[in-house]
Amino acid sequence: MLLAGMVWLFAGGAAKADFKLYVFDDGVLTNTFSVASGGTIDTGEFNTTHFHIGKTLAPGVDLGIVAISNSPGTPARAFINQLTFLAANTSTGVHTLTIAASDVGFTQPPGVLVLRNAVNVTWGEANTATVSSDNLSFTSYVNTLNKQFDADVDPTTPGQVGSAASGGFSSTTLTLNSTGLVGTTGSANSPDVNFVHDGQPYSLSDVLRLTLAAGSGAEVNGVTNVFPTPAPSSLVGLAACIPLIGLATWVRCRRQSPTPV
């Protein structure tokens, strides 16, 4: 079932590079990655001013942030998924890493839909530390006017946020705090937010904010889901699929490299 799900997970794709990933260090945009809608972004390992992102999973396999979209969606589910294999604060002081993913052109599922997001974290992963002040937040957005996250605005107020009249709907912001113990995990999923899909394309976006003390690190998986109503009672493979998603994505990404813009 899991392998079959992976085949479905990587379906789809279009010619335009509309699936985008933005990285901010203390609110300053440092990196932008882009592939075709419905594709997969694999950033590889990289550094910002205060953070190292990524780790080596196996010889020759180095992964940073992996983002997946299934635009235009399926009758059962539309989603974007961002997985940070490791974010480590390599500087002094407390700093915040913000990662925003956004894709357009979702046309499924039809009818009345449910927006639901989920996040999973492991604190102090891969020889990093953690303290009780380390924390993350994760919020998902849908825009029924097919508007994408705007990298020119402050990441705390992405472009698709607004009233229902402007096409913007958001999930409850999920917040997880470290216990200060290395290797501990946490997860959360949001209450459902209903909206009506009138047949026109819509966009999905999400924003992860990870605040870490010096030397602290975390591995985070965030998923933005849209289901037809009634929505399933649980999310599909959020925690258990993390290693397999990463390795399968890496294989696929060697055939579809992100385009920095």
Summarize the model shown.
The chain is mostly beta strands and 261 residues long.
SSE series: HEEEEEEEEEEEEEEEEEEH
Largest sheet: 9 strands, antiparallel
Beta-strand portion reads over 45%
Number of domains: 1
Number of discrete helical segments:
2
Poorly predicted regions are: 1-15, 152-163, 236-257
The structure class reads mainly beta
- Rounded to the nearest angstrom, the distance between the terminal CA atoms is 37 Å
Radius of gyration: 17 Å
Label this structure with key terms:
7-stranded antiparallel sheet, mainly beta, 9-stranded antiparallel sheet, globular, 261 residues, 18 strands
Write a structural description.
This protein has 261 residues and is mainly beta. The chain has one domain. The chain has two helices and 18 strands. A hairpin with a 3-residue loop joins strand 4 and strand 5. The N terminus is likely disordered.
Please specify the SSE layout and strand pairing.
Layout: H1 2-9, E1 19-25, E2 28-35, E3 40-42, E4 46-47, E5 51-53, E6 55-58, E7 61-63, E8 65-69, E9 78-89, E10 95-106, E11 111-123, E12 135-143, E13 168-170, E14 174-177, E15 185-189, E16 193-197, E17 202-212, E18 217-228, H2 242-253
Antiparallel strand pairs: 1-2, 1-10, 3-8, 4-5, 5-9, 6-7, 8-9, 9-18, 10-17, 11-15, 11-16, 11-18, 12-13, 12-14, 12-17
